[in-house]
């Protein structure tokens, strides 16, 4: 009788021990994805898509909570959080990432790409793989390179059609050293302001203008406080989609596969939404009373040529030269 009781107890203990790792695993797969874009932005739509797909592909083992609009801090703060493992995933910004991995700045050289599709031909090849390895060395796993668009300028003072129109304008930039260089080369004053604070800063006249892709200008309703839009196309920026290496290393091979497949779907969606948005958004901005001007890009590019020279001479110059060469070969 005692032997039967002991056997039942032993079997129950074994069953409990077998169940514990599953419970621990279930807790470990509740992940948080933070980004700074507004709800409705392709960045947010793709983040939600990623959460849905990874939950389905992992049979419910991975649940991702999406926190938009800088709820978890600005891009720089989220980069730090991902590197330390305090945040699991982020759809971030090229400028903020370049502080940790300087090579990201190479993709923002002025007037290098005329369309995001050109940039992705480079990023989806060996140079993008090299960038992913450099990111992994800094504690971040690249899940995909998303589109943050070709950037244009808005301001509340005057139309911009020539370089001289930039002189003296106080222009907001994100924490991106290349953008600061571009603004200064064009004669504007660069001032860094968090994106979440940008609308109010423009409304109150803290700065005269800003620059962003059309989708960000529209989603954050910057047209309400900026009536002049210049289609400068001065810079491409990506949105690196990243997972903390600490989080990645905790996942099983099966769950890593689910994450990668979901990221591939989300990346395709984000790029498509961004590509589809521009023509429609430009018409809508015009309908809202925004005055649109174009610029001679060759003249603007010449005015900013010293920016390329500066970065080619920098510590990441070898990588910058490879990216410039690849872009020119397209």
Automatic annotation (TrEMBL):
Residues 1-26 form the signal peptide. It comes from the Bacteria. Keywords: Signal. GO terms for biological process: transmembrane transport. GO terms for cellular component: outer membrane-bounded periplasmic space. GO terms for molecular function: carbohydrate binding. PANTHER family: DICARBOXYLATE-BINDING PERIPLASMIC PROTEIN (PTHR33376:SF2), PTHR33376. NCBIfam families: dctP, TRAP_S1. This is TRAP transporter substrate-binding protein. It comes from Hydrogenophaga aromaticivorans.
């Amino acid at each position: 009788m005692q032997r039967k009781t002991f056997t039942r107890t032993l079997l129950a203990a074994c069953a409990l021990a077998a169940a514990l790792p599953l419970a621990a695993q279930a807790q470990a797969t509740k992940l948080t994805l933070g980004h700074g874009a507004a709800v409705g932005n392709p960045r947010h739509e793709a983040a939600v898509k990623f959460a849905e797909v990874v939950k389905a592909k992992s049979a419910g083992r991975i649940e991702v909570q999406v926190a938009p609009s800088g709820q978890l801090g600005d891009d720089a703060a989220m980069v730090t959080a991902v590197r330390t493992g305090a945040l699991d995933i982020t759809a971030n910004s090229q400028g903020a990432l370049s502080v940790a991995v300087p090579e990201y700045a190479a993709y923002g050289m002025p007037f290098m790409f005329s369309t995001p599709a050109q940039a992705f031909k480079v990023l989806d090849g060996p140079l993008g793989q090299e960038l992913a390895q450099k990111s992994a060395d800094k504690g971040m796993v690249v899940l995909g390179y998303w589109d943050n668009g070709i950037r244009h300028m808005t301001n509340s003072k005057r139309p911009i059609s020539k370089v001289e129109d930039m002189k003296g304008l106080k222009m907001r930039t994100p924490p991106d050293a290349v953008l600061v260089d571009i603004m200064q080369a064009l004669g504007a004053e660069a001032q860094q302001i968090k994106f979440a604070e940008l609308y109010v800063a423009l409304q109150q006249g803290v700065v005269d203008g800003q620059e962003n892709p059309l989708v960000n200008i529209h989603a954050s309703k910057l047209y309400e406080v900026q009536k002049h839009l210049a289609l400068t196309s001065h810079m491409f920026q990506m949105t690196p989609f990243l997972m903390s290496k600490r989080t990645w290393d905790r996942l099983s091979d099966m769950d890593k596969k689910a994450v990668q497949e979901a990221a591939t779907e989300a990346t395709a969606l984000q790029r498509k939404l961004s590509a589809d948005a521009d023509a429609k958004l430009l018409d809508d901005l015009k309908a809202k009373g925004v005055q649109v001007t174009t610029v001679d890009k060759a003249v603007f590019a010449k005015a900013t040529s010293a920016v390329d020279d500066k970065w080619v001479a920098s510590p990441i110059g070898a990588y910058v030269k490879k990216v410039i060469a690849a872009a020119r070969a397209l």
